[in-house]
Amino acid sequence: MNDSVLAFTLAAAVAAGTPLALAALGELITERSGILNLGVEGMMLLGAVTTFLVASATGSTALAMLAGAAAGAALALAHAALSISLRANQIVSGLALVIFGTGLSTYLGRPVEGVPLPPGARITRTSVPLLQDLPFLGRVLFQQDLVVYATWVLTALTALYLFRTRPGLALRSVGESPATADAMGLRVNTIRYVHTVIGGVLCGVAGAYLILARVPAWSQAATTNGIGFIAIALVVFASWRPWRALLGAYIFGLALRANFALQAAGVTAIPAEFLAMAPYLLTILVLIALSASDLRHRAGAPEALGLAYAREER
Amino acid sequence: MTPAPDPPATAGVDLHPGGRPVMEARGISKHFPGVVANDHVDLALYAGEVHALLGENGAGKSTLASILAGLYQADAGELRLAGEPVVLRSPREALARGVGMVHQHFRLVRRFTVAENVALGDRSQPLVMSTPDVQRAVVALGERYGLPVRPEAVVGDLTVGEQQRVEIVKTLYRGVDVLLLDEPTSVLTPQETEALFGTVRAMAAEGKAVVFISHKLAEVVAIADRVTVMRDGRVVGSQPVASTSVRELARLMVGRAIDLDVVRPPQRPGEVVLTLDHVTVDHDTRRGSLTDVSLEVAAGEIVGIAGVSGNGQRPLAEVAAGLLAPDHGRVVVGGRDVTGRGPRAARAAGLAYIPEDRLGTGLAPSLTIAENLQLTRPHGPVLDRRRWTADATRLMQEFDIRAPGPATTTSSLSGGNIQKVLLARELDAGPSTIVAAAPTRGLDVGAIDTVRRLLAERRLQGCGILLISEDLDEVVTLADRILVLFEGRLVHTCDAEGADITELGLAMAGAGR
Amino acid sequence: MSAPTRDRVDDTPPSGTIRAPRRLALEPRQEVSRGVLVAVPVLAVLLALIVSALFLRLTGHDPVTVYRVMVRASFASRFGIADTLVSATPLILTGLAALVSFRVRLWNIGAEGQLYLGAVAAAGMALLLGDRLATPVNVVLMIVAGALGGMAWIAIPALARAWLRTNEIITTLLLNSVALLFINWLIFGSRSIWRDPDSGQFPQGQRIPAAAEFPRFGTTRVHLGLLVAVLAAVVVWLVLTRTRFGFRMRVLGDSEDAARYAGVPVRGMVLAVLLLSGALAGIAGAAEVGGLSRRLDPSSLAIGLGYAGIIVAALARLNPGGVVLVAVLLGGVRNAGTALQSLPDRVPMEVAVMLEGAILLFALGSEVLVRYRIQWPWSRPADDPAQGAGAAEGTDAAEGAADPAPGVDAADAAESAGGAAG
After folding, report:
1. Which of A11, A56, A25 is nearest to A206 (CA)?
2. Closest Cα of chain B to C292: distance in Å?
3. Which of A131, B478, B513, C244 has its CA 20 to 30 A from that of A248?
């Protein structure tokens, strides 16, 4: 494999990993508050189809993205209401979101199935001046679109927010020990609502990006293709840390793109499907290894993840 | 019992002539279902004093402190801060007005650093926090009050004693004038206790009022300026420590008429049915520890384990019942060595166990009465539900369990009936040995009587009973012999007949010898 | 609390009663009446229909017509009912798979993948031996193979959960994707025995021998799988209610401490329950291959049957009889999707999936009505004074103290009030 094929593959991996990174960051923020939302796939799909419809109607990229974000937020709000206020089982509620989101988005998208996106609404490449000319790295990282760059900023902001700010500290405490947070006067459920919806916004944006930049026509099957579930795994894989999630997203992106690269390089010894399995199997191994070691207490999930908090309950 | 005299009046004369209390509680009452936790309690705290709240478990000390700290609302009465009436609706409000509490069970996020825990919920922090600032403040407070903590350490890695320091620092960081310490020494080693005393003195010297809640007489005498003794939710005495004695305080704390309701005809004990032989359980933060505990229970006798809760009762009960394998030593039930062989082996050897946690360990909450009555029985692969219902009907009648029927969900029963379900199952198995932990805790008077009567009956029928109870009356009333458990060791042994209650109180408080 | 502090000093007499402000609170119900049990799911379905009707109306379809067509297509004719039952067959089995694990508070989200592997194993068995054996033997062997396939697929998550307490939600979920890739590889990426060697450009599964096909009832598409599924529901019900194993499941699902106290082998139970769950999902795959697709066909298998099973179990409140009923209802909804496309204004069939999701969301939301009684801020406290006080103090963690069995959340509150309880 020569240098330019490698650069091309890595650049493609970054692009393919971007929607994953957005969704994973969203889920990470949600899970940090102690809410497990397995409905990422549903939120992404609804975000994608809403984006497509608005883009078709208005031709505006910004409006379309906003609409996608709002759609993701709306579904996340439903999950928040169910799992926080009504104390429903978060696992079942999340999966209900997947099914409802899939059904609704396919239904809404049926009339426009296969119709191409208006070209004006597409997100196009915006190279970074100067940096794009860097040898190798320039081609991998700096000849991408604005959303890719925005994802880096977002990752940095998320990390800053989580680990350096007052609300970030409150967010983490709510996910770790809601009883302590409550005793310190924080409003546990409000904090959880807000961050579940923020997670939904990012998942909606991830879906919007898929439509606007990656698969510029609506098709339910081809749009997310299970990315939502990978995003959930990524959060675990990344031990709930933003930069690791971004890196993990690019690794998964590479796995998603590796088929093409290997085919291009004439390697056929490993079937494409097995290559695609690798990230999942790796994540499972990491999970098992984490629980087998004492690391769990440090790197593991927020301790109150998946548990509704009610002060007056036993 | 008559309400106590107004303590501020007497105390004010003794220690604080003309001074005004920084915090005052007047006529505080607090009810929990079935219990009066505080009954017209008065308390006055002055700047610069260490004020001990002394009393047995259940005397109402923690409830009073929780009301002062805004965690609970009083049903009646009022609080005053610097003479002004206030309503403290939450710990945050209390903290904002300078009242902080360190609970027995810490309010810390285990995976946060010390600095993060200190900064959590502090609205004076800037949006983007400056960790070095918080760290410096933590170190400064630590130096000022003798509370060495590393601000960058993760709380979960710290010892319990260190975590307590973090809790105190957290409270001091908010600038409190009144600090409530709930049983602070119960988790400390003697050396750590000594260090804590230094901190307490430093705080008092700076003009803070420190409330020191304890049941350990020796400590109260060592640290406090003034002591208020509580019993059964009431204040029974309040005076300067200098004008009292350990013996006097013990009498105030424990001294009540002992009602010998349960007839205890003397009988000669039979052969030994339960032996704990040099049992040691190493420290385990969840359960507590035991050090070299040896005891024997013979058929037809009740051996009472007295002691303040948290001194090793739970591991003692669990080791005897086979749930916990001891690190050293042996457990013999009915002549069979069952050490580390699990609960089923202990049962097969004739042991019945009434755990402290009735609903949740002894019984499965959402199962029916009939099912819970079969929980520990051996079963064939296919269940005989008809027999279960018949058994349940019989036992419900025999043990007077008040419920709509055998199919009633257990958790919907009252506390007394829940305990009767547990006793029915355990006693109906025809055990030769019974381990009963806190069997009457939280029950109403009628149910308490039933439980005690049942245990006394079994004794007459030749059961050997190990009764673990923090209720000293209960132990004295029921047991033939009394052992006192303190910090995981048996520190005192006596016959119940003619036992000196003051001696026992002293032993329970670790001042025995 | 950032809410402005109400000044209550003046209106509070020294010995008066101080109460925290009331707010909306949920109070756990002790006993649930039958009326509530029936009314709540009906309410949920109605609300789902109303919300879906809104979407239909917004997109220019007439909800009444759509619903009428759906009912007619799935429940009004002999063949409609038959097709509904065909759709319900795998849902019953995956619903049972979710049920057995959820009962023990284990979360097997991997029925989807376990179903694929059950299908692989059953198809493999049929392709290897089907020619040489009689149909009854084939059917039994395929079902056993399907069960083993499902068990194999959950084995690693189950072992990790039992011994290392590894979160089974994520591991089982991830294995779904792996399983899908695996069956795609068998058909599209390899020259395995599952692939029809003559299918060339458009690869498809090799058809299983006729002797391995599950018998069908009369001229309908209803196949033996339905009987197997209903039988499985009966067996699960019997196991849960009549056997020691089921009793231990209930104890473990209720309280792990009580299970240990009663001497239940906790690890063994966790492993056994998860394997049973996987086996049931695997049998669903075997039935799909033997009764419906008659080949390993990724596109007809990968229609979310495993995920739908979780919904079925949740809607049925983890009750085996309920699973059969709900599966038939959802089977009808799914089956009706196809009929919609024949309408003049071509309503997309995905209405069915949307409706399925909406029913689940509302069912989940309304479940709160079953578990809790809602205390409105303006309603009077409950009759029992103790409970009334508790509700009013919902804001200051006093309930933990009032409760005889403090759990995790309010444990420390209960401890500090331990004095009160003792």
Report:
1. A25
2. 36
3. A131
In a domain, B223, yes or no: yes
List, for residues C281-293, the tens digit of each pLDDT value: 999 999 999 999 9
Least Cα distance to C327 among C221, C219, C232 occurs for C232
Partner C contacted by A118 (CB < 8 A): no
Where exactly does CATH 1.10.3470 map onto chain C?
62-346
In angstroms, the CA C188 to CA C203 distance is 6
Which of B95, B119, B156 is facing A169, going by the closest CB pair? Answer: B119
H or E element, residue B134 = helix B131-145
For the beta carbon of residue A85, count every other beta carbon within 10 angstroms: 16
What pLDDT, in 10s, does the model give residues C131-177? Answer: 999 999 999 999 999 999 999 999 999 999 999 888 898 899 989 98
**Could you tell me if residue B13 is inside a domain?**
no
For residues C56-64, average pLDDT: 85
Distance (Å) from the alpha carbon of B312 to chain C's nearest alpha carbon? 16
Q: How far apart are CA B26 and CA C14, in angstroms?
A: 8
A183 with B108: Cβ contact below 8 A: no
**Closest chain C residue by Cα to residue A232:** C170
Nearest to B473 by CA among B251, B304, B356: B304
pLDDT above 90 as % of chain A: 44
CB-facing half-sphere around the CA of C115: CA atoms within 13 A: 37
The residue assigned the tokens 């000196």 is B500
Instruction: Please list every residue in chain C whose beta carbon sits closer than 8 Å to the beta carbon of residue A108.
Output: 55, 59
Task: Give the pLDDT of residue B9.
Answer: 39
Nearest Cα to Cα of residue A194 among A20, A23, A34: A34
Q: Where are the domains of chain A?
A: 3-299
Three-class SS of residue B243?
Answer: helix
Q: Which residues contact B172 (CB under 8 A, 6 or more apart)?
A: B100, B141, B145, B179, B203
Whether the CB of B108 is below 8 Å from some CB of chain A: the reply is: yes
Q: How many domains does chain B have?
A: 3
- B373 inside domain: yes
ipTM for the complex shown = 0.84
- Partners of residue A172 in chain B, C-beta under 8 Å: 109, 112
Q: Please indicate, yes or no, whether residues B446 and B513 belong to a single structural domain of this protein.
A: yes
Instruction: Check pLDDT > 60 for residue B291.
Output: yes
Q: Which of B253, B273, B296 is the last residue of a domain?
A: B253
Residue-level length of chain C = 422
Closest Cα in chain B, distance from residue A297 (Å) = 8
Residue B464 is assigned to a structural domain of this protein: yes
Are residue B223 and residue B191 in the same domain, yes or no? yes
| CATH fold label, C62-346 | ABC transporter involved in vitamin B12 uptake, BtuC (1.10.3470)
Percent of chain C with pLDDT over 70: 80
Whether B283 and B220 share a structural domain: no
With 0-12 / 13-18 / 19 or more C-beta atoms within 10 angstroms meaning exposed / middle / buried, residue B337 is middle
Of B90, B91, B116, the CB nearest to A169: B116
CATH of A3-299, one of 1.10.3470, 1.10.10, 1.10.1040, 1.10.260: 1.10.3470
The pLDDT score that the predictor gives to residue C104 is 94
Q: What are the distances in angstroms from CA B339 to CA B278, B356, C12, C314?
A: 12, 21, 60, 43
Cβ within 8 Å, pair C361-A78: yes
Task: With a cut of 50, say whether residue B84 has pLDDT above it.
Answer: yes
Q: What is the dihedral of CA C20, C23, C28, C29, to 10 degrees?
A: 110
* Least confident segment among B130-134, B368-372, C180-184, C267-271: B130-134
Chain A residues within 8 Å of chain B (Cβ atoms): 160, 164-167, 169-170, 172-173, 176-177, 179-181, 183-186, 297-298, 303
